[in-house]
Amino acid sequence: MNIKNIFDQFNKKKIIIIGDVMIDAYLWGEVNRISPEAPVPIISKTTHENRLGGAANVALNIKSLSATPVLCTIIGNDSQGDLYLQLMNALNLPVNGILKVNNRITTTKTRVISQNHHLLRVDEEDDTSITSEQEDLLFNNIKEIVTNEQIDAIIFEDYDKGVITPNLIKQVVNLANSKNIPTLVDPKKRNFNHYKGVSFFKPNFKEFKEGLKLDLLKGDNEKLIEESKKYLHSTLNKQLMITMAELGVFIANKNEQQFFQAQVRKIADVSGAGDTVISTCALCLASGLEPGLIAQIANMAGGLVCEKPGVVPIDKELLLTECIKKIPELQ
User: Fold this and answer.
1) Are the C-beta atoms of 69 and 95 separated by less than 8 Å?
2) Angle at 150 between CA 172 and CA 61, to 5 degrees
3) 3-state helix, strand, coil in the chain (%, to 5)
4) Which residues contact 109 (CB under 8 A, 6 or more apart)?
5) CA 20/CA 6 separation, integer angstroms
6) For position 1, what pLDDT does the model report?
7) Catalytic residue among 152, 158, 186, 275
8) Residue (of 199, 27, 35, 180) closest to 114 by Cα position
9) Mind listing the pLDDT tens digit for each residue in 255-292?
């Protein structure tokens, strides 16, 4: 197999990402005194930065892998929503899948940092489920994009903030299956058991254990294989991949189960690694790779971004080099 040709094919792929988006805001400053009003530090602001967060980090990873992301979501018809679209435009990301609605705010998480210490985080959000009317608007927009554009995969990137609902999941999965478009899921707790008939389900070990209320220990591979078989049978999902941090990844379908060890890394920050993994899985699945290779390449991608501080998208050329060097099937 020529993995370089596979990676070159990524350039032609277009991936829809459905999920909760947010603005990650950072306020850096210095603390030199305590407030006379209360025993709290006073921070003198020096720098303020806004970044795309949530499901948008998957879009950034898809773009970094040279494919085209189409982010489908709902944001508020507010000043932060305007800012969100400005951030998308500044990065040349498509905005045709983003809907602004009244009576909902755009999620913003502001982190206050001084001398490399994280002092405080302020969350402005509405994590209630979107209304049925908003759900219809979002689905119809997704349906229009799927009908008019060549879509190679659809990712559900769930942050439990209310954009993804059980009915939206059902409608999108039915639409995708009718058009033979693979669906992938990076789940959270609220909708964990509502994903049925999807192509690829990727929880981490904790999410899998808690989502199914299992008495399961990390490292008990025999029990994990047993539970994976039950899960795939009951949900009709085609593939299950569980990330297990230092123990690597587990991938299964109805015919086989495989474990792959984690690569030895100097971990700087695990933030955003799951977004990188699901992005890589989507492009590998859309390119027709077999489960074992998908798991190994995605595992490699997740490990590489953990070596860098902060939330950063995967470096495609570095990933290609590492894959050729460390995955036996590609050597």
Assistant:
1) no
2) 80
3) 40, 25, 35
4) 22, 23, 24, 25, 53, 121, 122, 123, 124, 125
5) 30
6) 67
7) 275
8) 27
9) 999 999 877 656 544 556 889 999 999 999 999 999 99
Strands 41-54 and 21-34: antiparallel
* Chain segment 99-137, per-residue pLDDT in tens: 999 999 999 999 998 887 888 899 999 999 999 999 999
pTM of the model: 0.93
Range with lowest mean pLDDT among 191-195, 233-237, 272-276: 272-276
List the one residue out of 277, 16, 234, 244 whose CA is nearest residue 141: 16
Cα–Cα distance list, 40 to 33, 48, 176 (Å): 9, 21, 52
299: its two tokens: 């595992």
Classify residue 177 as left (phi > 0), alpha (psi -120 to 50) or beta: alpha
CB atoms under 10 Å from CB of 45, counted, come to 11
Question: In sequence order, what DSSP letters do the residues of 232-288 get, joined into one string?
Answer: HHHH--SEEEEE-GGG-EEEE-SS-EEEEPPPP---S--TTHHHHHHHHHHHHHHTT
Residue 32 to residue 178: CA distance in whole angstroms: 61
Annotated domain spans of the chain:
3-21+54-104+127-330
* Active-site annotation holds for 275: yes
Region of residue 98 (left: phi > 0; alpha: psi -120 to 50; beta: else)? beta
Measured in residues, the chain has a length of: 331
Q: Which helix (H) or strand (E) holds 177?
A: helix 166-178
Q: Which position has the token pair 């439990």?
A: 160
Q: Which CATH number fits domain 3-21+54-104+127-330: 3.40.1190.20, 3.40.50.2000, 1.10.10.10, 3.40.50.300?
A: 3.40.1190.20
